[in-house]
Amino acid sequence: MARYQLDARRLLCPMPVIRAQERVQSLAPGDVLEVLCTDPGAANDIPAWCRINGHRVVNIDDLGDTLVVTIEVGDT
């Protein structure tokens, strides 16, 4: 398992999800990806995308100006 970070700040819907999807394609099952977002909709959009695609949301941290959505990559 490895940890990665994706900076999707200042991107609006649907770009945080699209960038997360692109990044996850190069990761292995069990890897963890932290997605940094400023679009508040990402708190709903990324978990919905994870449910559909077999990934798991580990945590969502609201740091005030940035959301950090932590994803564990599933078997894709």
How would you describe this protein?
With 76 residues, the protein is an alpha+beta fold. It has one domain: 2-Layer Sandwich (Translation Initiation Factor IF3). Helix content is 29%, strand content 33%. A 4-stranded mixed beta sheet has the order 1-2-4-3, with helices on one face. The longest helix is centred in the middle third of the chain and has 12 residues, at 42-53. It is globular. The two termini are 15 Å apart. The model has no long low-confidence stretch (mean pLDDT 96).
Summarize the structure.
The chain is of the alpha+beta class and 76 residues long. Helix content is 29%, strand content 33%.
Label the structural class.
Answer: alpha+beta
**Count of extended strands:** 4
Mean pLDDT: 96
Query: Quaternary status of these chains?
Result: single chain
Number of helices: 2
What's the order of the H and E elements? EHEHEE
Share in helix? 25-40%
Can you summarize the main beta sheet? 4 strands, mixed
